[in-house]
Design a protein that fits this description.
The protein is of the alpha+beta class and 264 residues long. It has 6 helices and 15 strands.
Length: 264
């Protein structure tokens, strides 16, 4: 089913009232409409300490050195509840990913654990995020826990540089930031980086919302503040409504009934 068809044919009034309408601060939607990004925090909405316990058993990323990662495909059902969709590879075309280790490849990762996804504050977060972006039932949502740890210096983007992720709705939530220097996020109006929009260093609990098809982003390299202690920085990336045709082909293959933002 195409998203355009659903927009015109789906009776949104039949959906139940969402009790999470006050989840986001009032200026978030306005900022997204006016400037395509918004920075806020959800420290009062989630148990961040409990979420951080799920970082200990993250598998190593098999495609990127010095990174750990889990990811799951989620969606809302017709009642507005969060559901797991099953396995589908992550697929970013070269137009959206400049890194040789990741571009134009199918990447498979271990899913987010059931203990994490069953948490009420995780499920509320996903539902509220979907409401913010007007994500409809059966529209795939990709949720990742990913990050870096270690010593010395590391490029968390592994060569991607200034880029877009190939979607319309994207948010980055910092889970932890320990003994870190660098890691400043940058937003631009162009891929060349000649029109800077803002620079921000996210603290744990901060979330940066981006209209990914309207702007570009990057992050500085990460190092140790105390050279005798390893650094660690982990984030949640949650995104949907893909404009990357490579990813949409994989979604259609694995989830035939999904609602996609198909461009053709």
């Amino acid at each position: 089913m195409k998203l355009d068809t659903l927009k015109h044919g789906y009776d949104m009034t039949s959906m139940p009232t969402n009790p999470l309408s006050e989840y986001w601060k009032s200026d978030v939607s306005r900022e997204l409409r006016q400037r395509d990004w918004s920075l806020t925090d959800i420290r009062e909405r989630i148990d961040l300490d409990a979420w951080q316990t799920f970082l200990a058993d993250l598998p190593r990323d098999p495609y990127v050195n010095r990174r750990w990662k889990r990811m799951s495909w989620l969606c809302l059902d017709d009642q507005g509840d969060m559901q797991e969709m099953g396995e589908c590879p992550m697929a970013q075309g070269g137009a959206f990913n400049d890194a040789e280790s990741m571009a134009d490849r199918l990447r498979y990762y271990e899913p987010l654990t059931s203990d994490f996804l069953s948490r009420p504050d995780v499920r509320a977060f996903v539902r509220a995020w979907a409401q913010l972006w007007e994500i409809v039932p059966q529209e795939p949502i990709l949720m990742q826990i990913t990050g870096v740890r270690g010593e010395g210096q590391v490029d968390p983007l592994q060569g991607q540089g200034i880029h877009a992720d190939g979607c319309k709705a994207l948010s980055i939530l910092v889970m932890n930031r320990e003994n870190v220097t660098g890691g400043e996020n940058h937003l631009y109006a162009d891929k060349a980086g000649t029109r800077a929009l803002t620079d921000v260093t996210l603290a744990p609990g901060d979330i940066l919302h981006l209209r990914d098809d309207h702007l570009f982003h990057s992050i500085d390299g990460i190092g140790q503040q105390d050279p005798d202690v390893p650094f660690e920085r982990f984030i949640i990336i949650i995104n949907s409504r893909f404009v990357d045709e490579f990813q949409n082909r994989m979604l259609r293959r694995h989830f035939p009934d999904a609602v996609l933002n198909e461009t053709r």
